[in-house]
Amino acid sequence: MTNALLPDFLLTPRQLLQDPEIQPLDGHVYGVIYWYTNMRLQTCLATNVQIALVLGVSKSGVNKAIIRLGKKGYVQSSYDRSHHTRTLLPLISFQQTNSIPHGTLAQSQRTLTEKAVSQTGQGSVPNGKTNRPQIILGAENWTGP
């Protein structure tokens, strides 16, 4: 797919990874459906061909994956006869139940930095590059390259 918008990464819910009846392609298809629903239209109107192009797989593989996901209740598929469009809806919500609480990582890094400063007694981190305390920001403050 040249000149097309492609996802940087896909999210696959843990439920899919742990389900023995779900194949790896199914998780990738789910990730593409979820990705489409988080775009401007907030819905996935992608055809099997479009999903297959994003993943670099066959249309029939995508079709089988959507059928498996639908039978297991992970995806809902509905067809609008008046507009001749199919809508795919991911049914697993992403919740941060087992993740690090917001700010915890940054606070831990600041605590380690403060501890290093107090151990050197110099008001700096022991890297010898600065006489100011170095503050290390966590992932929630990272803006990317």
Describe the fold and architecture.
This protein is mostly helical and 145 residues long. It has two domains: 14-90, Winged helix-like DNA-binding domain superfamily/Winged helix DNA-binding domain (Arc Repressor Mutant, subunit A); 104-141, no CATH class. It is 39% helix and 8% strand. The protein is built from five helices and two strands, in the order ααααββα. It has helices at 14-18, 24-37, 48-55, 59-71, 104-120; strands spanning 75-80, 85-90. Strands 1-2 form a two-stranded antiparallel sheet. Helix 2 (24-37) crosses helix 3 (48-55), helix 2 crosses helix 4 and helix 3 (48-55) crosses helix 4 (59-71).
